[in-house]
Amino acid sequence: MAAGGALESAPPAAAAASAPAPAGPSTAGQLFRPLGAEDEEQQPTEIESLCMNCYHQGTTRLLLTKIPFFREIIVSSFSCEHCGWSNTEIQSAGRIQDQGVCYTLTVRGQEDMNREVVKTDSATARIPELDFEIPAFSQKGALTTVEGLISRAISGLEQDQPTRKANEDGIAERIDAFIVKLKELKQVASPFTLIIDDPSGNSFVENPHAPRKDDALVVTHYNRTLQQAEMLGLQAEAPEEKPKEEDLRNEVLQFNTNCPECNAPAQTNMKLVQIPHFKEVIIMATNCENCGHRTNEVKSGGAVEPLGTKITLRVTDPSDMTRDLLKSETCSVEIPELEFELGMAVLGGKFTTLEGLLKDIQELVTKNPFTLGDSCNPGRSDKIQEFSEKLDQIIQGKVKAHFIMNDPAGNSYLQNLYAPEDDPEMKTEQYKRTFEQNEDLGLNDMRTEGYEADQAPQR
Predict the structure, then answer these.
(1) b or e along 404-430 (b: 16 or more beta carbons within 10 Å of the residue's beta carbon)?
(2) How many domains does the chain have?
(3) Cβ atoms within 10 Å, residue 57
């Protein structure tokens, strides 16, 4: 059974088009300001708009803000003083991510019901135990909780029940029975599964145990299908002639992009680099002259390796922090002593040092708005602070720890300071990928043998 969204007010995109442009030097070049209670200049824009419930004039409030992990979003709230109708929603104003994301959460208790959830318009939500699905683009985006997501689905089903009972009583009875099952889920009498699949990659489910690994939550990143790309309005680019590798090695390619922070036009530089004792990689760097944001990203210049690679380093000395490191998008990172695991695609591809990556991890955890703030559970901020202090001790060489990189694609690298001899503190293992890992890499559906026969001309 599928559920549609509740009755919505005037679309915020249309309201935003008629909104007055922000004025004043404080907002120049910074249309999307970071969300913060101390920013007194950050005020919502109020616009009169038509209430779709009573057709009188109501008020829409728009707030253009920026949240880590989700970049720019538009928070909108509509209220009508005539009939009391109200509605809130969010819309992503940032770019579509390079990969889609799927969150699979096993809900076991009320703590899981209170997890914060960001569900964008393009996300599909499913509860397999009830054969229930909220299709993509049937609801507006929302910043809510697991319980709020279910309550919203219940409201969407209940809103047309009076009409159904008058015209299709049998269907209305079945929907009533289904609504009862949804309401029972909120009591968590037995575990159930919530799946949020978003091809745009902009949805999110909170890990309340951060920075520790969440055993109840599985996060999978995947490459979009052609149908999903078309659904998001993405056009496939025409194939271009492949440049010669000799030219790529000796020059820096430049192309126009948009800044991931302020969305202003920016320039990205791309260079093919040979890493000693490893392989060629592509390094891309973007510098925004508008807001000053700088970012770099690394992608493997070769194919997926036949075997996965697991690199384990025993950090024993501050000099280990200077080791060069290449973390591909498919690589996960683990620090067992801190019970910490960084999943695939988080932080993207990076070519840095071990110290640089650990500091990026520290910033990722300590500045996550979903692990801190007013809605933070008691004691969570203390755990985050404790994690940050322990990570500082590892970076300073005061505490020994193990640093593990696991890359199913085999495209990650950690410098061997004793090369070409073996490094006594580092162990590199190659392993055969599981079916699930091949599925994540899109290899199970890839045909590399026997395709010539299909392409041969028929006589």
Answers:
(1) ebbbbbbbbbbbbeeeeeebebbeeee
(2) 3
(3) 12
Backbone angles phi and psi of 84, in degrees to 5 = 85, 0
- Cα separation of 391 and 389, whole Å? 5
Which of 191, 210, 234 marks a domain boundary?
A: 234
Alpha helices per DSSP H over 259-401: 354-366, 380-395
φ/ψ (deg, to 5) at 245: -60, -30
pLDDT of residue 403: 95
State the Cα–Cα distance between residues 408 and 287, nearest whole angstrom.
31
pLDDT of residue 428: 93
Q: For residue 335, what are the β-bridge partners?
A: 340
187 and 316 co-located in one domain = no
Question: What's the rounded Cα separation, in Å, for the pair 133 and 140?
Answer: 15
Q: What is the CA radius of gyration of the chain?
A: 25
Residues of the chain with pLDDT under 70: 1-42, 66-72, 92-94, 235-250, 275-279, 300-302, 368-378, 446-459
Cα(430)–Cα(428) distance, integer angstroms: 7
User: What single string gives the DSSP state of each residue in 154-220?
Assistant: HHHHHTTHHHHHHH-HHHHHHHHHHHHHHHHHTTTSS-EEEEEEETTS--EE--TTTTB--TTEEEE
This prediction has a pTM of 0.53
Let me know whether 193 and 294 are in one domain. no
**In which domain, by residue range, is 319 found?**
308-371+380-440
